[in-house]
């Protein structure tokens, strides 16, 4: 593939370039504007300093950019973060898809424990998609950052795009641009890299990458799911809660009236039930602490933001909304995941349990059939 960049379009995030206002998106110094494949100041800071500047682009701006897909004839590649499947799911995806086929891609496979069965995972994703109202034509697993599953992904693209355009869609931070960069690196000849980072909302406009003379692949802006905890934390704490390596499940044998803290981000109270295992799947950098339920409130008040209950770290505690309680009843003989959007999940099951979960107000907390 060859990458053709508009003269005044950022080669990294796709936003129109301008040299008039440093505070607005797309700013570049005048001297940079005439360079081949220029990138905006925001992309430059992400690439070279791992910094990101906030930009004035709201949800309606993103949705307006994507609204045209339903009127086209194309293959829609919907990328989800396997580790945060529910949190990265695009609500109302049918509005953007129309009658176009959808290829569902589960990215970040490298974060899941290696013992997981890929075939079972694919079937689980098909089932979950159906429950959420989508019937993809195919499901592919991959890790764009590690190059895992790319041959299968390219094969699926060829099978399902029918010589039509391809639109890559997904929530923020699922790895769309990393996936496209991997395609360009392994199967194309592009000299331009799309800007990628752990920070949500990196791609700011539609980026067109020609496939051949008639068709193109489009990288689209990530839709922001506001109920993910990643949008409530500082960049410093985001590094701690976003896994970058294979997650090591942590198993706790709990009696009722015991509590688990996932740092100071979430609290899980085992209110009632027989002794059983609670398996935590979260970033290896999150401190997990067990205590008695009767001491949980005092412990949180006294130690949130310290080494005992972090992240959040230090003064970042003030960034989080107040904790809100959700209650779940898990029947005996069933195995369920309690999912905290953007943070991870806790697998509970076998003996039946009544569980209360506390997470910042606005963060989605749901229950599903166990993934593992």
TrEMBL record:
InterPro entries in alphabetical order: G_CP_dom (IPR030378), GTP-bd (IPR006073), GTP-bd_ribosome_bgen_YqeH (IPR019988), Mito_lipid_metab_GTPase (IPR050896), NOA1/YqeH-like_C (IPR048422), P-loop_NTPase (IPR027417)
CDD domains, per the entry: YqeH (cd01855)
Tree of life domain: Bacteria
One matching Pfam family: YqeH-like_C
Domain CP-type G: 59-226
Protein's name according to its UniProt entry: Ribosome biogenesis GTPase YqeH
């Amino acid at each position: 593939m060859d990458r053709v960049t508009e003269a005044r379009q950022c080669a990294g995030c796709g936003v129109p370039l301008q040299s008039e206002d440093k505070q607005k998106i797309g700013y570049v110094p005048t001297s940079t504007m005439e360079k081949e494949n220029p990138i905006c100041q925001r992309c430059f800071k992400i690439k070279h300093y791992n910094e990101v500047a906030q930009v004035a682009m709201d949800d309606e701006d993103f949705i307006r950019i994507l609204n045209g897909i339903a009127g086209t004839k194309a293959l829609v590649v919907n990328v989800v973060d396997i580790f945060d499947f529910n949190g990265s799911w695009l609500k109302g995806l049918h509005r953007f898809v129309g009658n176009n086929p959808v290829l569902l891609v589960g990215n970040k496979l490298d974060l899941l424990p290696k013992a997981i069965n890929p075939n079972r995972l694919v079937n689980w994703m098909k089932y979950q998609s159906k429950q959420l109202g989508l019937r993809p034509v195919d499901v592919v697993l991959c890790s764009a950052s590690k190059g895992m599953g790319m041959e299968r992904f390219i094969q699926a693209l060829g099978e399902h795009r029918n010589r039509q355009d391809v639109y890559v869609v997904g929530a923020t931070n699922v790895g769309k641009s990393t996936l496209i960069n991997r395609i360009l690196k392994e199967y194309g000849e592009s000299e331009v890299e799309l800007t990628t980072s752990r920070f949500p909302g990196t791609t700011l406009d539609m980026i067109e990458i020609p496939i051949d003379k008639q068709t193109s692949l489009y990288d689209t802006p990530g839709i922001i799911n506001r109920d993910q905890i990643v949008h409530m934390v500082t960049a410093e704490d985001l590094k701690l809660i976003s896994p970058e390596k294979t997650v090591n499940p942590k198993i706790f044998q709990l009696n009722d009236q015991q509590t688990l803290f996932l740092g100071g981000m979430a609290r899980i109270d085992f209110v009632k039930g027989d002794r059983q295992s609670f398996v935590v799947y979260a970033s290896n950098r999150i401190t997990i602490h067990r205590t008695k339920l009767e001491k949980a409130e005092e412990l949180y008040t006294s130690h949130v933001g310290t080494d005992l209950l972090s992240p959040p770290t230090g003064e970042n505690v003030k960034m989080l909304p107040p904790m809100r309680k959700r209650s779940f009843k898990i029947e005996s003989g069933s195995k369920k995941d309690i999912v905290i959007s953007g943070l991870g999940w806790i697998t509970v099951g076998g003996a039946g349990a009544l569980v209360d979960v506390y997470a910042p107000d606005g963060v989605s907390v749901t229950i599903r059939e166990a993934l593992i």
